Amino acid sequence: MRQLRALALRVRGLFRSRRVEEDFVAELESHIELHTEAGIRNGLDPVEARRQALIRLGGAEQTRQAHRERRGLPWLESLLRDMTYGVRTLAKHRGATAVAVLSIGLGIGANATIFSMVSRFVLRPAPMGDPSNLLSIYIRPQGEEYFNSFPLPLYNDLRDQAKSFSGVAAFYELIPASISGNGEPERVWGQAVTTNFFDVAQLPMELGRGFLSGDDDLPEVVLGAGLWQRRFNGDRGIVGKPVTISGQTYTVVGVVTPAFHSVDQIIYTEFWVPLGSVAKLVPNAPPKGSREYHWLPVVARLKPGVTRAQAGAELDTLASRFALSYPATDKGNSFVYRQAGSLPPKEKGAVLMFLTALSVVVLLVLSIAGANVANLLFAQAAGRQRDMAVRLALGATRGRLRRQLLIESLLLSLAGGALGVSLSLWATRALSTLHVPAPIPLDVSIALDWRVLVYSFALSVVSGILLGAAPAWAAARPLLASALKGDDALSRPGRRITLRNVLVVAQIAMSVLILCLTGLFLRSLQTAATIDIGFRPQNLLIMSVDPRVHGYSAERTVQFLTQLQRRVAALPGVRSAVTTDVPPLNGGNRSDGFTLVGGPSKDKPITYAELYMITPGYFETMGIPLFAGRGFGREASGGIQSALVNRAFVEHAFGGANPIGQQVSGGGVTYQIIGVAGNVKSRTLGEDQRPVLYRSLQQSVAADPSLMGYTIVVQTMGNPALLTEAVRRQIYALDPAMAIFNIETMEDHVRTAFFLPRLAAMLFGTFGFIGLVLASVGLYGVMSYAVSRRTREIGIRMAMGAKPGTVERLVLRQGMVLVLIALALGWPVAWMLSKVAASFLYGIQPHDLLTFAIVPPFLAGVALIACYIPARRAASIDPMQALRTE
Amino acid sequence: MGEKADVWQGTLALMVLRTLETIGPQHGYGLARRIEQTSGDLLQLNYGTLYPALLKLEQEGYIRSRWGISDNNRRAKFYELTKAGHRQLKKAAAEWEQTTEILARFLTSADGS
């Protein structure tokens, strides 16, 4: 406490030094006078008395200095002085400072951007109470690697029997719905939750409350804050008012905190209803009593004082108890838990891998930038040798000089960090605008948060110290004699491998690595563009509706879609119009396992096929070739359904034999195959051809309605985007309350499917470019410095008769030797590391020969240019001038 | 250098506090003289070191200062103990006594082992 008070006073002393100083001078003066008077009283003459007084004081000036140091904080004062001096020095070398700050800024910016992804997807806890004691619980079947959700009865058992938890809640993840009233009808997604969900998750509420435990059939709804703002203008009196969701009336009981969208933080849902609503809002809702249907993710809140290990042990006990009671369904199952809000276990591996690769690359970029700046500081230190030597000769300690230089490099890197953070502010915004190809709403936006800021700051400080350490060390021990003479005091005689050269070699070697990766991803994007997607995306417009969530029956849905198709086909500029449930390249699709009907019965191979509903004319409109049989005509309802399959299906299920007329069954339905169509990419660009089965929309809507709604595909004669309004008007003409979603041209839709290769190419392209520029600037700087240092030597050579061409070659050779060493070091490392990237590449091998053949000469070419400019300068040295300098 | 000064300053601070307690408010020169007299002139203070010590005590809140007039009509800065200073003096004196007592025992029984 006392020390704190003293410290505060001393800090204050820094700022009011003048008055205190005068006060102390007066005090000292009075001391001396008192002492002198005493001396006079003892018989000394006044002059001698005063002399004695001064002697006993130990020197007025020394006393004042001691007092001054106690008054303020000397180390803080000198630190401030060093900083002012540093700022002044940096401001003086404006060009070098700008290059350094820009270099570090780019490096830190790249790191901050990637780290904001890490922060978003790995570190950020969900905004639910204390996230550390909220667990997601999964079922792991024996011997399997995947994690399952819960059947309702099993959830009930767990909730009633587990003692480690203060609450266990379950939810149904995705309910597509339409919301109407207040403007255009809109498609929104929500979740159905057990009534204790908000209590277990401890979700902060913006308004109102969660559900009261008990009745899960009440028509109550909690709105997401975004939906509340968007559709209800943030009406603070919304609680108690009715809203219409998919034609049903619900009473708003609360609005949840804006930060919350779903437990896993990826799925973007905007309303929550009690679990009982699933039956009302979702067709073919999973049977509540079934112990086989895994449809409910579960979260549980640990009781205070219970550790995760204890809970895990109890879960093990419960799992074996359930296995005994329900051997048919629960045998071999175990429970596993993860902290709620972390990435779903399924995706975690790939995401972590991608982020790690990116983190390594951006750290390399930062290292290249750091090497640049270190080199720059070296050059500067060399220019300041005389200054340093004079200060040393005057008695400054080396430590003091080093501190001065370190403070300068810290200032540089902090300024760079600030620039980097503002750059990544822009970069994260740009990245957040990318759409992820998925049939469901996902929130993958990233932004700078406090974790990113702390990380960037720490990174700036660390890099400031690292890149300043070596120059500071070297600069503070100049060869005094040469420095005072004005010679280069840093170049120690007889040393050929200098730290600067090592730095440049490291820089170029690292850029070889990054450029190879960049090359791979650019090539990957290029080959991705040539992937045969199996259909023609030009001149197609797509638009989706979901009549079911507006209360349409199956017949009315078919009727609506048929009418719409007819009306749209009649529009001017429209060639044809068909309907499907979802277009290809949708990121995820309905699939079922199929077996052949008839033939040998035991152990029939199962073909897992993607299911699409289509209307007649679909293949012509989409430009998918038909290889055998026919497309749909007027299919009768009832009886055996017709289906077309793609070639991959034929390969897999029939071994390539003619399937026409054969029957397959899956999902409880038997289909007769009437035709074979070409392969299309069903979910993602990079997938191997998946088997696909097309069924008739008319025949399927009733028994197996689409959860994703239905998409009308319009083939136009001209630019499809121009017809958007006309098609929308046709939909509203049939039903003004119909919510329309996913409006885009097929080309845009396909472009979205390029998400991963584009994201990778964009990120690596940017980082590769930055790395290349930084490394070239570094090489240029080192060569320029070498030339300027050897001005006299070159002058002598030329005076002795060397030709400009010879001098030019001399400099070029010196630079290119460095480049060759770097290539020899970097290339093999890149070759080895490229395997890591394999799983993110499309259509090319990680050891892509073209990439690895082009990068070295390309880099060498750029390096040649960077060396050529200083070489020219060397060649144009005027011998007379050169010999006269210094 | 630093450590020695600290020890010295520590004891000097105790002397200052004790002296102020005995004689009441006093200026720097008077304090110094008084300390020398009390020590039976065994101590010879470098008066210059007294002032940083006084400043430290003041920053810590054990003493306070104000300008006043000395016995022979000179303007001088007078220091006096605060309440915290009284408490600190008691504490420091007790600690010092204990230390010297322990040391004394060592020194008297030194030849035994």
In short:
The complex is a heterodimer of chains A (886) and B (113). With 886 residues, chain A is α+β, with helices and mostly antiparallel strands. In chain A, strands 2-3-8-5-7-6 form a six-stranded mixed beta barrel. A six-stranded mixed beta barrel of chain A has the order 13-14-19-16-18-17.
Can you walk me through this structure?
The complex is a heterodimer of chains A (886) and B (113). With 886 residues, chain A is α+β, with helices and mostly antiparallel strands. Helices cover 52% and strands 15% of the residues of chain A. Chain A has 29 helices and 21 strands. The two termini of chain A are 60 Å apart. The model of chain A has no long low-confidence stretch (mean pLDDT 85). With 113 residues, chain B is of the alpha+beta class. In chain B, β2 and β3 form a beta hairpin. The N terminus of chain B is likely disordered. Chains A and B meet through α1, α2 and α4 of A and α2, α3 and β3 of B.
What is the strand arrangement across the widest sheet of chain B? 1-3-2
Q: Round the mean pLDDT of chain B to the nearest integer and report it.
A: 82
Low-pLDDT stretches of chain A = none
Please give the radius of gyration of chain A in angstroms.
Answer: 37 Å
Give the biggest beta sheet of chain B: 3 strands, antiparallel
What keyword list fits this structure?
A: 886 residues; alpha+beta; 52% helix; B: 113 residues; three-stranded antiparallel beta sheet; 4 helices; 3 strands; globular
What is this structure's SSE topology?
The complex is a heterodimer of chains A (886) and B (113).
Chain A: H1 2-13, H2 17-41, H3 46-57, H4 60-71, H5 74-92, H6 94-123, E1 134-140, H7 152-161, E2 165-180, E3 186-193, H8 197-201, E4 205-208, E5 220-223, H9 225-232, E6 242-245, E7 248-256, E8 271-274, H10 278-281, E9 298-302, H11 308-325, H12 327-330, E10 334-339, H13 345-383, H14 385-393, H15 398-432, H16 450-475, H17 480-485, H18 499-529, E11 540-545, H19 554-569, E12 574-580, E13 591-596, E14 607-614, H20 618-622, E15 626-629, E16 641-646, H21 647-654, E17 663-666, E18 669-677, E19 692-696, H22 697-700, E20 710-716, H23 724-734, E21 740-745, H24 746-753, H25 755-789, H26 791-799, H27 804-833, H28 849-875, H29 879-884
Helix pairs in contact in A: 2-3, 2-4, 5-15, 6-13, 6-15, 6-16, 13-16, 13-18, 13-25, 15-16, 18-25, 18-27, 18-28, 19-23, 25-28, 27-28
Chain B: H1 2-23, E1 26-27, H2 28-38, H3 47-60, E2 63-69, E3 75-81, H4 83-108
Antiparallel strand pairs in B: 1-3, 2-3
Helix pairs in contact in B: 1-3, 1-4
